[in-house]
Design brief:
Blueprint lengths: L4 E5 L2 E6 L2 E6 H53 L6 E2 L1 H18 L17 E9 L9 H9 L17 H6 L6 E11 L2 E11 L10 H6 L23 E3 L4 H4 L5
Parallel strand pairs: 4-6
Antiparallel strand pairs: 1-2, 2-3, 5-7, 5-8, 6-7
Helix pairs in contact: 1-3
């Protein structure tokens, strides 16, 4: 409203307009200032809370990825393989594909490797778990890595070629693979919580060559002892509530040439 005539007094400001007038006293101005101040404070708190949640999410993500690469390195050391480093770009790609797997399969827990041209020069291990239990994830990254490694109990170190059904293990300990990307996605569907997990490796492992030269050079028995296989434990939340995907040789074990 445009005020044609304004008068001032100790009580405040008075606006005179043709046939009507209105007053804005000091109490009204003070109340306005309080409301504005309260609004700005709430807005700042919401922004601060959002930043805290964002930071916590980043820390949680960084923690599981750091733990994943440390777990890989502990297992690789048994087989005289050098340590891996975490590659953030590869991890982002793994995250995106884990989400894609949930969109494709959901609670049906299908697993299918991403197209090789979408991850050039990278190997890939996949895992999924679903549960009806009230837990945050259908499967942990730690459990997935352990399940890949536990294929060692069926691995023949005297055979220097790709061994069907055991490609997750040989990729995990492949000596030339020194960069790791790790991602996951958890979603809920039809009363179940499902987590898809994707690990990517560069250089790509499981490379077949004449005479098995690369398998001989990259997969070593090292200090591994078969007694490990006598103490395998299931880290799932309960057999009746936890389902591990069965592995299909065409989809989940990957040999590259």
């Amino acid at each position: 409203m445009v005020c044609p005539t304004i008068s001032y007094s100790q009580k405040g400001i008075k606006c005179h307009e043709s046939e009507q007038s209105f007053s804005i006293n000091r109490r009204t101005l003070e109340e306005r200032d309080r409301l504005v101040s309260r609004f700005l404070h709430k807005a700042e708190m919401k922004s601060f809370s959002a930043l805290i949640l964002l930071a916590l999410g980043y820390v949680v993500t960084a923690d599981y990825r750091r733990e994943a690469v440390e777990q890989h390195n502990r297992l690789r050391a048994i087989h005289d393989a050098p340590e891996m480093t975490l590659n953030n770009e590869m991890s982002e790609g793994a995250d995106q594909y884990a989400h894609r797997l949930f969109q494709m399969f959901g609670v049906n827990m299908g697993l299918k490797h991403s197209p090789k041209d979408s991850r050039r020069g990278q190997g890939e291990n996949l895992a999924v778990g679903c549960t009806t239990a009230r837990v945050a994830e259908g499967r942990s990254v730690e459990d997935a890595i352990k399940s890949w490694y536990d294929e060692v109990c069926r691995y023949n170190f005297n055979v220097h070629r790709f061994q069907s059904g055991l490609g997750h293990f040989s990729q995990l300990v492949w000596k030339d693979s020194t960069e790791l990307g790790i991602g996951k996605y958890t979603g809920k569907q039809r009363g179940k919580t499902c987590t898809y997990i994707v690990a990517r490796y560069r250089k790509v492992g499981n490379v077949e060559t004449p005479g098995g030269r690369l398998f001989r050079e990259n997969v070593s028995k090292g200090s591994f002892r078969r007694s490990y296989c006598n103490n395998l434990s299931d880290k799932s939340v309960g057999e009746a509530e936890y389902i591990s995907a069965s592995y299909d040789d065409d989809d989940d074990d990957e040999a590259s040439s």
